[in-house]
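Progress against Task 2.4 (sequence-to-structure conversion) is shown through the following example record, which the project officer requested during the mid-term review.
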Amino acid sequence: MVLIVSGTVLEEAPSSLNSLFQSHPSLKDSANALCSLKSQVIGPAGLLYVSQREYAVTHPHDNKVSIIGTDDVTTNVIIIVRHTGSGITLLSQVDRLKQDDVDTMLQKVAPTNYGYDNRIKVHLIGAFADSKNISETLTLPILDYLHRSRVELDLVTCCVGEVCTIHRNGTPWPVIYGAGVNVKTGDIFPAQFTDKGPDMDIRNARTLTGGANVGMLDVYDCAREEMRIGPFTYEPMRAVDIWLQQSDEFLLQSLSPSPAVTPNPDNFVCRLRATLKKIKEHPYPSVTLFPSNVPRFYRKDDVSGLWLTKEETSWQLPLTQNGHHLIKGDPHLVSLKHEAQFGGFKDEFNINFNFKQEAYMPWPQALPIQTQAYY
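Structure tokens generated for the chain above:
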């Protein structure tokens, strides 16, 4: 099939972003409109956060998730796909992509075409015009893969490249570092997220150690309304101790795709060190993190908005402080494992957030990822 812009079929995939914007000014207008919106700060309630080389799919009737989002994007691309009839929505963050990845993700949205308005809208966000031209090198293949997909796709937003870039003292900077989509309404907005979900150290380890062969990972089962991490594996990083001994500045310059414009560099280095420590502690994740090739499952808690394991949802949580009930979603409930911080609470009630966990059959094998260790 083909990409369609404002009702016009593209005869071939764009050869450059400039030619695409010149031929279709409406894309530039929609990008400018998105960039003009104020970035929202989104907490954990109703949020499903997607990281690099991950994607998630859900529908408007999801009881747990109302927003899918991702941030910390510089040269990466956020892809949002929404079916106009069913409202099924997909969001992913990619730093490289293959045709098989695109086909697999679109199949999560396209099978619902029967009985609905047969339009699928695509939005590309991020990938500012960096000085090394990394972003355009990534974006053009994505447009080519979408153009060669088996379904018709309406390219509504292409907020990438120069239209998503500002210049400060001659240095290009991203206008948008993150975005979210409301799965109930389809509204898309710039955003940053205060909670990134469970197992971020493990999820980052998958991409850090895996090299270019690490594919896209589906992290959400909308039928069960559960977050599902893994299973996957990676090779031991033999030089992990050497990396951990390096300075924060060295890690930032070596492992960030755009060190000069990395959002919250201190947080980036902190997460990176946590990932390196996890790799050191679990050199063989298929044995210690995903025994029997079983994923790690999480269900969103209605009170805190966090993703919790089945065991964590059975904990006894204090409800009152000095005789007053905590407001639903109070940030003090975020660290559920550290009950000591609630030492001043007088009254405690037992709340069971148990959910039925049906048995999953183990996967026949781990994902066939060929990895590359750093030395």
